[in-house]
Amino acid sequence: MQNRIKDAEINLKELESEYRGNSSLLSSIELEIKTAKDQMNLNRTNYQRYQRLWSQGIGKRVDLEQAELAYKTSQNQVRNLEKKLEQTRNDLRNRYDMARNRLSTEKEQLRDFEIRSEIDGVIYALNKEEGEYITAQDRFAEIGGTGDYVIQMNIDEEDISKINLGDTVVLDLDAYPNEVYTARIQKIFPKKDEVTQTFLTEGSFVQAPSKLYNGLSGEANIIVSKREKALTIPSDYLMSGNMVQTEDGSKKVKIGVRNIEFVEIMSGIDSSTLILKPTEE
């Protein structure tokens, strides 16, 4: 494609030189016109001389007619050459316009082969090698920004109804094991992933690390409710049927909010109750 554009540029330059510059073809015709006009002026002078002589009764009529014919012939030759010059100039202009349109078309077609990102950023991955064929459906590269990173979180089906836009996220990143960061829920995708049985949500950092990289992983806890002085127990101490094991046997409890690690106890036991971790069967 680049070779075609280069050929079109060379062709345009040559035709522009012929059309706007010193064209040898136009110069040749202009020289012919100058020569023909000189001859026409000579023939006109000769014809006028024969006319004066004839008016004085001197000379032969055949000589007058031959002088007139030579003059008119030279006139026609000048007119024909002037038409030829104009036609040649028009032809050169048309060829120049065609060459300019061809170059414009070639550049337009080249733009069809150029792939441009709709955002500013960096290329994180290239899935194709130079020279490989790609189609409009091929995912051949990953491009992302370098500024505001998006946090993607997968929420279990049973928890998605508790999540709202603007909820606070407490985030632990594997790359920064001793740091805790906060974020906000910005988007909740309504379609469930049938493979993972989760819903995708996106968040943005309230306080971000000084350095971030595409693909960092970690654990996120979304704060969906807050309780002051809440009584909680570890999640793995809660048995099926909302039962807990105590020194006095199993007791049923009423639970409130919960996360992966802890469960809120609304009633059934209090802070003085000693609970036991269930034995695995």
UniProtKB/TrEMBL annotation:
PANTHER family with a match to the protein in the record: EFFLUX SYSTEM COMPONENT YKNX-RELATED
SUPFAM superfamilies recorded: Outer membrane efflux proteins (OEP)
Annotated InterPro entries: Beta-barrel_RND_2, HH_CzcB-like, UPF0194_transport
Domain CzcB-like alpha-helical hairpin per the UniProt entry, residue ranges: 32-86
Organism encoding this protein: Cyprideis torosa
Chain coiled-coil ranges: none
Entry's localization field: Cell envelope
Domain of life: Eukaryota
Name of the protein in question: Uncharacterized protein
Keyword Phosphoprotein: no
UniProt keywords, alphabetically: Coiled coil
Domain CusB-like beta-barrel: 152-199
Keyword presence, Coiled coil: yes
Annotated Pfam families: Beta-barrel_RND_2 (PF25954), HH_CzcB (PF25893)
